[in-house]
User: What shape does this take?
Amino acid sequence: MTAVSVPGAGPACPTPTVERERVLLGHGSGGKLSAALLRDHILPWFTSPALRELGDAAVVPVSGAEVAVSTDAFVVNPLEFPGGDIGVLAIHGTLNDLAMVGADPRYITVGLVIEEGLPLETLDRIIASMARSAERAGVAIVAGDTKVVERGKADGLFVTTTGIGTFDGKFRAAPTRARDGDVVLVSGPVGAHGMTIMSVREGLGFETELTSDTAALHPLVRQLRQAVADEIHVMRDPTRGGVASALNEIAAASRVGIELEEQSIPVDAPVFAACEVLGLDPLYVANEGIFLAIVPAPAAEAALAALRAHPLGVRACKIGRVTHANEGTVWVRTAIGGTRVVDMLPGDQLPRIC
Amino acid sequence: MKYLSEYRDARIAKALARRIQAAASRRWVLMEVCGGQTHTIVRQGIDELLGDAVEMIHGPGCPVCVTPLEQIDRAVALASRPDVTFTSFGDMLRVPGSDCDLQQVRARGGTVRVVYSPLDAVELAQRNPDRQVVFFAVGFETTAPANAMAVWRAHQLGVRNFSMLVSHVTVPPAMIALLEAPDNRVQGFLAAGHVCTVMGWDEYEPIAERYHVPIVVTGFEPVDILEGVLLAVTQLEAGEARVENQYVRSVRREGNIAARDLIGRVFRLVDRKWRGIGEIPSSGLAIREEYADFDAELRFGLQDIHANESPDCRAGDVLRGQLKPIDCPMFGNVCTPMHPLGAPMVSSEGACAAYFTAGRLRSPVAGGVQ
Amino acid sequence: MCLGIPGQIIEIHDDHGVAMGTVDFGGVRRSVCLAYVAHDIAPGDYAIVHVGFAISKVSEEDARRTYALLEEMSQLDELEWLAEIARTTAAEAPPVAPMTERERVS
Assistant: This one.
């Protein structure tokens, strides 16, 4: 496998054999189709340098201070799932995007697109859990909007949010800052959220004791920052597309290679089992309560100790390293000593029969 | 997980790899027939462990890859009908037809759903009596008992709105076609453990004898595959050619008799086109006349849909092991996983997709295998 | 071609004349058709499951026997291999060789 070379594999020729004139579900997968949608249809129209960095949140100057701004849209079926619901997910997801650039979350705004016929009881439960998670995190929900659409025009409820965060000190993490020799840390086991949703989604019929890992990560990030401060080069919460897609984005943005040790990647037993049954790779499964941190090797032990001292980071571990070789590529050293490239997927990961 | 995790043991895998290297006096060419085995080989980097002892050719055993273009076109036609809920295994959704794939049909308003089991499709039909529910029955002998049961069950329960678009294929005729090819390079086979779990290995014995090739019935975990390779290499070094069973925990000589019985009652052998390879006599299964009511091709009159494959795609040569994907002029420029010309670039088991991903690691990685 | 995963039979029941059951895959459970293994399977046994169908009962005895052989082989092999490394190191490297020399040899 190592001897394989690719003749003429320059940029992929965009000549499609198949017309691609409509948006596919895969355009929302966080993989290559999503990247292409952004690159070809959205980013050409917007020129703000803050947007171009494509971080989890933008950092912009406001009246002399720097402010982090993040916006997000949440669609999930079912609306309520083991371990959370769309409301909690929306708050945590927004807080986490702010935390990933090193900001302290301060304010959130919420937009609700509600489908005609949604039981008010369900709405009440979701809004209450939204309020609880914001309160626990110490952020205020300061503005919002509601719209109702006809039955069949939305999947029960869509939620959009904007989050505002502020900075203390100069600390910045960015996807462009990974360097040769850095180590890759993950704050907890991978794949729990995505496999939970898949197991309860109608049609696949699996019973599991899986629960989503949804959590507000900013207290954990704060603890990490206090321990190693400026030493954190990159932080990223690997949501849709999973750890594999997040690391591919970092490898491309930082122009480095990333090598993972398969055996050191923490995967809980039921997540592992569900992935085996459906033929899925946990590295591509969505997470909502862990993050990746890339730090220089000398800071790794202190960073791990800080993460493990917090309840959300007890199972943090080192999963890989950054190299100058194989720029833009992520690969895994497998348990039996082979290697495999962990490319971004074109679209959603689909259950396999073979 | 019991019976799974222990067969990924690195110590045993490495010990087997060392034995293979020690046993091989020359470089042998083996083919793993099954796409599931290709998946393990690529995913675990097993070919790196084999070094110069063995070249593995990835065989045509991926049902996604060999389903003929016109069958995809028929699936697309069905899924586009407003009265049809089209159900399929997940990995068929991205296979390109002449005009589009099933995901695009969904984007244009068709109802396409992924199911885990064909019985789920029957159940869906029961719950939606006003919809025509069609299941895309692809696969090798392993999947045939499941699809046969879905037809039998729908018949037994009187689920009239269920039918199947069948594109079943069988392994031994394909192996013979490969061995008959004048430029065949394959010297030994790892036969597909789950196909043999259903069918047993009787039908492989005449093949091993006639073409003088070792055939080792092999499982799917790294330790299984390496042990299968070791058994095949040992036979080759000794000049032997017999059928051997590595996958003893699942495969019996006679296979699964109850499953074979129902396959025989629901399906009959037919000539079938393989994508990229062409028609192979008696290599496919179709629904018997007694169950013709459940044949979607008859119910919806699809027999007139025909299609020719892209002349640029050399999937056939790749599936026969005669062209390495990287030597195909379309590879990596016109044909990529984002814009696949042919099926081997679509499925993660497909030889082309496997090479595309693996080939991107151009610098050797330090600290390789012993 | 055929993703088949071993799981443990939890219960067996009859559904309109077809044997069905619940199978546990390392903590994930699903309803599985047991019609093709019904004649010799009981709760607690393991089966290989493909697209919701048990296609064989895992033979515990065969699995145990063959795995023991593999383990034995790997232990033997490891000992031989270590012995060989020890031999080559002793033969090729002078006992007082500087580190850099030794590294080059291995």
Chain B has two domains: 1-306, 315-358. The longest helix of chain B spans residues 222-237. Chain B has 16 helices and eleven strands. The first strand of chain B starts at residue 28 and ends at 34.
